[in-house]
Amino acid sequence: LRTSAAADPQWIAVFGRGTESDETDIIRLGYRHPLKENGAWWKPSHVQFGAGSWHVPDVRGTTRRLDLNVSAIWRGDKSWGYWEAGFGGYLLSKTINNDENRLPSAFEFGSHIGAGLRLAKNHTLGVAIQHLSNAGIKQPNGGIDLVLLQYTLAR
Prior knowledge:
Layout: H1 4-7, E1 10-18, E2 25-34, E3 46-56, E4 63-77, E5 81-92, E6 96-97, E7 102-103, E8 107-120, E9 123-133, E10 144-154
Antiparallel strand pairs: 1-2, 1-10, 2-3, 3-4, 4-5, 5-8, 6-7, 8-9, 9-10
């Protein structure tokens, strides 16, 4: 059962760091549009559109990458906070190649799971773990794991 916060549009700000490299940082902004509830547990609650900026080491030195992304989000809002999971596509402005991570294609799939606490009626703060990889489209497919801090404002 969704609460009113889950049925509302949401704006998110995400700060992330690579788990294998403390030199990999990500900032993302996104908008989540609520989907019509039909009672099916497997149907996502939101579709998320976002854009991000990466500061990531590369064999040619530390460089900036940009991403555009769209994800299906399953979010359960509770009185104490929320839980969520998501899966979607990410289009990177450039591939990533360093000692810790290899993302040899510009198109990546991303999945995440997380939870957070309610700060006020329409404000939550949470953490999540995310994995991005190309699902074997191009080798080597090392992927990247991220720890995310997420602020959500429901309107």
